[in-house]
Automatic annotation (TrEMBL):
Keyword S-adenosyl-L-methionine: yes
Family recorded in the similarity comment: Belongs to the class I-like SAM-binding methyltransferase superfamily. RNA methyltransferase RlmE family. TRM7 subfamily.
Organism: Epicoccum nigrum (Soil fungus)
Enzyme Commission number(s): 2.1.1.205
Catalysed reactions listed for this entry: cytidine(32)/guanosine(34) in tRNA + 2 S-adenosyl-L-methionine = 2'-O-methylcytidine(32)/2'-O-methylguanosine(34) in tRNA + 2 S-adenosyl-L-homocysteine + 2 H(+)
One Pfam family from the record: FtsJ
Domain Ribosomal RNA methyltransferase FtsJ, first and last residues per copy: 21-253
Location (main, coarse): cytoplasm
Cross-referenced SUPFAM superfamilies: S-adenosyl-L-methionine-dependent methyltransferases (SSF53335)
Subcellular location: Cytoplasm
GO molecular function, one term: tRNA (cytidine(32)-2'-O)-methyltransferase activity
Protein's UniProt name: Putative tRNA (cytidine(32)/guanosine(34)-2'-O)-methyltransferase
Lineage of source species: Eukaryota, Fungi, Dikarya, Ascomycota, Pezizomycotina
Keyword set includes Acyltransferase: no
Length: 382
């Protein structure tokens, strides 16, 4: 086994096709759940930036079909599939299976509601309402609320809609390779996701979102601590170590009394930041007031001298960082030896409207080598 960060088709890419996931990202959510028990008691979820839909698949299989993917489920799946991924012989696979834990019977949940939103169209999934919309646009809020409660939604009283337990967002822009620009655009998606979450989360709810770890990411964590009691950063084993991607896991949503989220006055740039580390850690009482204009104001009870120190001294709150996914799980930066007779599987769900389609059409019109490249391009993006 050698290391190569250039090998885009890692063990998770192959495993995803083998286990029927639309994308390898499914393992990121599963491994975050393994560490944070994300789906405990969850029945209503919004999945933002959801296409092609592997996170929605996870939601559908866990909440609707009642499948288990905890450590036990994961070990079992691995045992069943690593013969293909790692090239073990049948006998070797069998030896390990004797130590595998017993399969949990599926426990479907009641009154499940899953809404998935993306700019791109998404193929249907059992029990998932899919919507094509831009999460940065205010018009997406009423569409999302209606999708959550189609029978009872009242446009004149949107706040009467039932809240959700969990909002997840795997949003990513088309990366340009210009790091600062990519981080900035990604952070805008994150703020959009957070502001949508603020509109629908119930107190005690959870929010999980992809982040790019740029130099000012601490400020973002401090902002999240305004409205969530626990904020941690997760790096699943299936997310390459070489990538700046990580996931912020926010638990126990606790909006200040009277706080009404709106995309007209979104939380984000301009919100007063908590500069007092003790307050951010919850070791000190912070009074949170909602101003008449809807903005949140924080009173740290610090005297002027103390405040000066904070500005100069740069007290910073560092969010706990957790690597998640069992150590025995595949390493996404490693290259594994494959058996000679291994057959490459087709993508589980070919992209419905890939952004590169137009480029291929243009190339075809210009008499380019469309026929030759089509298969290769489609496979690479699956
Ligand atoms: N979680 C998905 C899965 O498991 O299949 C993968 C998500 S993919 C990494 C990122 C997605 O973000 C893309 O499908 C893209 O269309 C979507 N996206 C980017 N900007 C968006 C926006 N403004 N509104 C909605 N979706 C957006």
């Amino acid at each position: 086994m050698g290391k190569s960060s250039k090998d885009k088709r890692d063990a998770y890419y192959r495993l995803a096709k083998e286990e029927g996931w639309r994308a390898r990202s499914a393992y990121k959510l599963l491994q975050i759940d393994e560490e944070f028990n994300l789906f405990e008691g969850v029945t209503r979820v919004v999945d933002l930036c959801a296409a092609p839909g592997s996170w929605s698949q996870v939601l559908s299989r866990v909440l609707i079909k009642g499948e288990t993917f905890g450590r036990a489920g994961w070990e079992q799946k691995q045992e069943a599939t690593h013969r293909h991924v790692l090239g073990l012989t049948k006998e070797e696979g069998k030896e390990e299976s004797s130590a595998a834990p017993a399969v949990q019977p599926p426990k479907p949940r009641e009154n499940v509601r899953i809404v998935a939103i993306d700019l791109q169209p998404m193929s249907p999934l059992e029990g998932v309402t899919t919507m094509r919309a831009d999460i940065t646009h205010p018009s997406t809020i009423p569409l999302m609320l209606k999708a959550l409660d189609p029978e009872t939604y009242n446009p004149d009283s949107p706040s009467s809609s039932s809240p959700v337990d969990l909002v997840i967002s795997d949003g990513a822009p088309d990366v340009t390779g210009l790091h600062d620009l990519d981080i900035y655009v990604q952070s805008q998606l994150l703020w959009a996701a957070l502001n949508l979450a603020l509109c629908v989360l119930k107190p005690g709810g959870k929010f999980v979102a992809k982040i790019f770890r740029g130099k000012d990411v601490d400020l973002l964590f401090a902002q999240l601590k305004i409205v969530f009691k626990r904020v941690r950063v997760a790096k699943p084993r299936s997310s390459r170590a070489s990538s700046i991607e990580a996931f912020v896991v926010c638990e126990d949503f606790c909006p200040p009394e009277g706080f009404k989220a709106s995309l007209d006055k979104p939380l984000g740039a301009g919100t007063q930041l908590p500069t007092d580390a003790a307050a951010v850690r919850g070791e000190k009482q912070v009074e949170r007031k909602v101003r008449a204009d809807g903005a949140i104001e924080l009173d740290f009870g610090t005297d002027d001298e103390e405040e000066d120190d904070l500005e100069e001294g740069g007290q910073r709150w560092i969010a706990p960082f957790l690597a998640c996914g069992d150590l025995s799980a595949y390493d996404s930066d490693a290259t594994y030896k494959l058996p000679k007779d291994r057959v490459s599987l087709d993508p589980v769900q070919p992209p419905t409207a890939p952004p590169y389609r137009r480029a291929l059409e243009m190339r075809k019109m210009a008499g380019g080598a469309y026929g030759k490249t089509k298969g290769r391009v489609v496979k690479e993006t699956a």
